[in-house]
Amino acid sequence: MNRTFKTVASSDISISELMLPSNTNFSGKIHGGYILSLLDQIAFACASKFSGNYCVTASVDTVNFLKPIEVGELVTMKASVNFVGNSSMIVGIRVEAENIQTGKIKHCNSSYFTMVAKDSEGKSTLVPGLILSNMNDVRRYFNCIKQVSLKKEQNMHEEVFDYTSEESLESLKKYNVKLEL
Ligand SMILES: CC(=O)SCCNC(=O)CCNC(=O)[C@H](O)C(C)(C)COP(=O)(O)OP(=O)(O)OC[C@H]1O[C@@H](n2cnc3c(N)ncnc32)[C@H](O)[C@@H]1OP(=O)(O)O
């Protein structure tokens, strides 16, 4: 079967939204949960655009809240597919907030979502291959390879790790916990 390939740039998508007082938390900053909901929407749009299929969120791999977002700031989210497997894609999203009076822009969030493409019967389906057109695309792809293998290692570790062993329990002494078993 001939596999199609598409550029990273063909997956590019961006959304901008003015932050309203209705989305604030108790301290008057924009609620993290609201940002997460926008991130999920743009990850969905980016993955669907690239794959040409309906997509679901398989995992939210990293969400780094770097700076708080204020009411009245214009938030822009830029997403692109950084990595493809067979049916999965890792979408990287950069979030910036602009003070529209001063034009000052701050980087507020970087996130990575794993999305899976589905066919009309709801089965995971093959996505196009990725054309890496510049060294930035290559860097991001390598970072994702590392991220995927670390996740696999972590899952394997969870499967084989004996948390009940004397050695494991002893090792907890160096943490800020007290065992009262
Ligand atoms: C847009 C939205 O918000 S959708 C709502 C929220 N999301 C959902 O409801 C999704 C619910 N979950 C599911 O439908 C399923 O568990 C799926 C699609 C995520 C995975 O289904 P599975 O039957 O396990 O599929 P399968 O084993 O074939 O894996 C499919 C791909 O997903 C990847 N995958 C599965 N689970 C994960 C995970 N937790 N993290 C990262 N990748 C994953 C697999 O590695 C595989 O990748 P590949 O095809 O590129 O090799």
Would you write up a description of this structure?
This protein is 29% helix and 33% strand. By secondary structure, it is α+β, with helices and mostly antiparallel strands. The strands form two sheets. Strands 2-4-5-6-3 form a five-stranded antiparallel β-sheet. The chain has a two-stranded parallel sheet with strand order 1-7. Strand 4 (74-84) and strand 5 form a beta hairpin. The longest helix has 26 residues, at 135-160. Bound molecules: acetyl coenzyme *A. The site of acetyl coenzyme *A has 13 residues, from helix 1, strand 3 and strand 6.
- In terms of per-residue confidence, which ranges show pLDDT below 50 for 5 or more consecutive residues? none
Examine the secondary-structure arrangement and name the CATH architecture: Roll
How much strand?
A: 25-35%
First-last Cα distance: 57 Å
Reading side by side through the largest sheet, how are the strands ordered? 2-4-5-6-3
Protein name: Acyl-CoA thioesterase
Domain HotDog ACOT-type: 9-121
InterPro entries: Cytosol_ACT, HOTDOG_ACOT, HotDog_dom_sf, Thioestr_dom
Family: Belongs to the acyl coenzyme A hydrolase family.
Characteristics of this structure?
181 residues; alpha+beta; Thiol Ester Dehydrase, Chain A; 5-stranded antiparallel β-sheet; two-stranded parallel sheet; 3 helices; 33% strand; binds acetyl coenzyme *A; hydrolase; long-chain fatty acyl-CoA hydrolase activity; Cytosol_ACT; Acyl-CoA thioesterase; HotDog_dom_sf
